[in-house]
Amino acid sequence: PTRHKCWPTKLDKQEQNMTIHEKAGWQDEVQERELVLTRVVNAPRDLLFSLWSNPEHLPQWFGPNGFAIETREINIVVGGRWCFDMVAPDGTRYDNRMVFTRIESPSLIEAEHGRDVDNDPGRFMLRVTFLQQPDGRTVVTLRQLHPSKEQRNAVLGFNAVELGYQTLDKMAA
Questions:
Q1: Quick one: 74 exposed, middle or buried, by C-beta within 10 A (0-12, 13-18, 19+)?
Q2: Residue-number span of the structural domain to which 41 is assigned
Q3: pLDDT band with cut points at 50, 70 and 90 for residue 19
């Protein structure tokens, strides 16, 4: 895969073709670096996938309760990016950038997610999966794979689990 220009790094030739989740080792020591949220939604997988993959829908519901999304750029394709601010109820702005690394309709979306700056050391891999159930409901699983246990713990310290579930609840509404 080609590395997106958002996060240029000085890597040897072998590493240049690896994505951030391959370098971080998605399968190795995952539990210490991973945050996993799951929600069963009474909706078909195709509909939920489109809420995540359609640039008109995603900014309308994404983010915790009370937060507004202000999009600067959005292109939900492999190599595309979504640059946006989450605006808290008190007016505090949190800049974000997602660079989409893998999209498999209607089952999976992966992105590198961090601040809207180049070389953000706090960026993490985001993986969202959509698993259709026989009864028509869909299991949506949101995984964050952080570069270190310490970073994951820092994210947990600012209520990331509760805020993440608020986001999934808004998607399901």
A1: middle
A2: 31-172
A3: low
